[in-house]
Amino acid sequence: MSSLGRSQLAECDLHKLYTEHHGWLQGWLRGKTGCSQRAADLAQDTFLRVLLARARGAAVYLDQPRAYLTTIARGLVIDHWRRQQLEQAWLEVVAQLPEAEAPSPETHLLMLESLIRIDRLLDRLKPKVRQAFIWAQLEGLTCPQIAQRLEVSLATVERYLATALRACYALHFEE
């Protein structure tokens, strides 16, 4: 157990957490990503999350600092992989476009950022809400068809779609 024990994370503890565990965390991340540079970036992002949690006033108790850091870092690795998958899918779509229709670098970046935001939004929805929304928007299924596939009532599908659309609305107007 670390000397940080059950005390709330103070500034001196944050420094100690960093100095005692940064090297270990970076090595753990290098094993997960296979890239020293990516591991260094993700390690820094992990400690930034700890710092931001502290700044928000969130209580951070560290009985097992490595487990705490691993939990944060694992989420960042998953985010990284998802971003890579989205970017690869977007690049495949762009590669199929005629050269005259290819997006500018600025548009390319904006589209990728939008896809990432939409992915995060969908990930926050309950599975049936997400599935109903995807079927309605991408496959063009009607509410009765979705109700049949999900084995729920028509009113439930309408609630699911309303929930998803409210989330989209909030995402669109959050800026």
From TrEMBL:
Residues 17-85 form the RNA polymerase sigma-70 region domain. The keyword Transport does not apply. Gene3D superfamilies: 1.10.1740.10, Winged helix-like DNA-binding domain superfamily/Winged helix DNA-binding domain. One of its GO terms (biological process) is DNA-templated transcription initiation. InterPro entries: RNA_pol_sigma-70-like, RNA_pol_sigma-70_dom, RNA_pol_sigma70_r2, RNA_pol_sigma70_r4_t2, RNA_pol_sigma_r2, RNA_pol_sigma_r3/r4-like, WH-like_DNA-bd_sf. GO terms for molecular function: DNA binding; sigma factor activity. Keywords: Sigma factor, Transcription, Transcription regulation. Pfam families: Sigma70_r2, Sigma70_r4_2. Residues 117-168 form the RNA polymerase sigma factor 70 region 4 type domain. NCBIfam families: PRK12528.1 (NF009180), sigma70-ECF (TIGR02937). PANTHER family: RNA POLYMERASE ECF-TYPE SIGMA FACTO, RNA POLYMERASE SIGMA FACTOR FECI-RELATED. Belongs to the sigma-70 factor family. ECF subfamily. This is RNA polymerase sigma-70 factor, ECF subfamily.
